[in-house]
Amino acid sequence: MRLALHAEWTKLRTQPGTAALLIGAVVLTVGLSTGVVATATTAGASDPAKLALAGVYLGQIVVATLSVLVIGGEYSTGMIRTTLGAMPRRWTVLAAKATLVAGAAAAAGVVAVLGSLVAGALILPGHGFTAAHGYPQLSPGDGAVLRAAAGSVLYFALIALLSLGVATAVRDSATAVGVVLALLFLFPIVASVVTDPHWQRHLQQIAPMTAGLAIQATTGLRSLPIGPWAGLGVLAAWAAGSLLTGGLLLRLRDA
Questions:
Q1: Does the pTM of the predicted model rise above 0.85?
Q2: Could you give the CA distance from residue 157 to residue 184 in angstroms, rounded to a whole number?
Q3: Contact by Cβ (8 Å): 103, 159
Q4: Mean of the per-residue pLDDT values for the chain?
Q5: Using an 8 Å Cβ cutoff, are 22 and 108 in contact?
Q6: Residue 51 half-sphere exposure, CB side, CA atoms within 13 Å?
Q7: Tell me, what's the pLDDT at 255?
Q8: Burial class for 221, CB neighbours closer than 10 Å (0-12, 13-18, 19+)
Q9: What CA–CA distance (Å, rounded) separates 163 from 103?
């Protein structure tokens, strides 16, 4: 495993675009979050933490793209044959890739989340989101805000693992990105057009993005389709299922 991690780390840090994509994930997350809090009003929102972390919706797309390219790029160039020839234990190869891609996504997530919270803490009070109006301060010292922040970092890591598993299964970068985006955004679209409240709630509970981002909620938890940690658990189940499927296909198919 140590040798596999070293090899995969060398490939990850020397792969063209890795640094740009990680920086892009941070910039887009913080940028969108800043734009959202700059236009927010107390009349239309009640959860400052969720507003400040809104950029995660955009940043996750970049994280997913990077994760897909980690193995999809090897399939497109044929490098995967060299990788598996040097390291025949395919589960070890996938585990090494998963460890590094999750770590990279989490590292970018820490910077992005901190930047977003700083932007929210600086801007939102000027829009009426103050303790005097009943809104908690955006501070890591607040347990709910800390949970939302830490959960958002974990969300990035889980999206990376989900994307890696999908790319391992389909072996084509463009197709894998399309599948991941469909999994993330199709459920909310379908849920929005379903008229039956029971089915709408059920779709929100099993949707990887909707359930996973419940971790950001700090107010009105009783009205959520699923609890914060339970929702993140749903995303973790999707990621685990994706990696298991990808690992089995990697093990059974020829490179």
A1: yes
A2: 15
A3: no
A4: 91
A5: yes
A6: 29
A7: 65
A8: exposed
A9: 14
